[in-house]
Amino acid sequence: MRRFVLLDRDGTINVDCDYLCDPAALELIPGSAGAMRRLAGLGLGLIVITNQSGVGRGLILPDQLVAVHRRLGELLAAGRAKAGSKSIGLAASAVVAMLMPLAVMCCLVWQWQGLTPPTWQDKHAAFRGVHCLFALALTGILGSFYLPLVGWRELRRALVDRTYWAIAACVACLALWPESDFNYEAGRWGGWLWAIVQHTGSVAHRWPLFPPLAVWGTLVIFAAVTRCRRLGMTGHLPILAALAVAWAVAQCANRMAFQRYFEPTVLIFLTWLFLPCWSAAPSRRAACAGPGLLALLNLLNALATLVYSVAA
Predict the structure, then answer these.
(1) CATH classification (class only), 1-114
(2) Which residue ranges make up each domain of the chain?
(3) Which terminus of the chain faces fewer neighbouring Cβ atoms within 10 Å, N or C?
């Protein structure tokens, strides 16, 4: 059953005027349109109610009231369009900001005859798909602590979305391609996740749990993106997507798959991805508990690593 929010008109959506009958005098309260968009993003229906005694007193004609409400709809629609144009502007700014780094990279590629300096080409000589797999698996594990920011209802919506399952099927198939077992010589070691891989064994040089963890990581990202879209806060998504792709391409050229090369970037990515969901979290207590618990676990892991290093 869908839930609805009843909103008063004067003093809640628009500035309160005595017996408003002129559409040109209608003025939205700053922030009211954005608040209504966020309510709608939560899946709530919006109903505007207003008691206009001026109609019965003859101070406002029915046609004037209809014109005022038509103007109100136009102002709210203009607010939605403005929010969309702001997102486009942010994406365009990101593209412009990347032009100079891309130009520098092109010059270096021409000078090096490739993406890697000559002195490091023996360590970065081939594309390694296990890096993308490892990053998605980490995203699934660490992103689980951020899920309270979107709520289980949003997660269930993602699970019944056909788009997600199409993406998840592609991820699961690609996850079976690269070798993903613990291998010191191949650079697949270093960190608690590789330690788990080492002690749980592999099949045909592939760790069986990497594909489901990668699919779960895809679900975490999909649920966050869906939530941001429902809240109307998508301006950061094109920037994050471009940065994630650039980082993944650069990382896949590295022979080493140490966890310390991945975990900080994944945590930064998750923080920025889920940040817009904070204001509309279903439970503030749970929203604080998830990332807070993750921070505590990272602190304990750092202290344990420090103690072990000193003892060794």
Answers:
(1) alpha beta
(2) 1-114, 115-311
(3) N
Strands (E), the chain: 4-8, 45-49
DSSP 203: B
List pLDDT tens digits, range 45-100: 888 888 888 888 888 888 888 898 888 888 888 766 455 555 566 667 767 777 88
CB 109 within 8 A of CB 115: yes
- Nearest residue to 79 via CA among 42, 35, 45, 48: 35
pLDDT digits over 102-155, tens only? 888 788 878 877 767 777 766 666 678 899 999 999 999 999 999 999 988 888
Q: How many CA atoms lie within 13 A of 66 on its CB side?
A: 3
Mean pLDDT of 155-169: 89
Measure the CA–CA gap between 197 and 15, rounded to whole angstroms.
61
Residue with tokens 């040089």: 205
CB 99 within 8 A of CB 40: no
204 conformational bin, left if phi > 0, alpha if psi -120 to 50, beta if neither: left
> Distance between CA 25 and CA 51 in Å, rounded?
18
Whether the pTM exceeds 0.90: the reply is no
Tracing tokens 């869906």 back to the chain, one arrives at 226
> CA 197, CA 201: separation in Å to the nearest integer?
6
- Give pairs for 130-133: CB < 8 Å, separation 24+: 130/178, 130/179, 130/180, 130/188, 130/257, 131/248, 131/251, 131/252, 131/254, 131/257, 131/262, 132/174, 132/248, 132/252, 133/174, 133/175, 133/178, 133/180, 133/210, 133/214
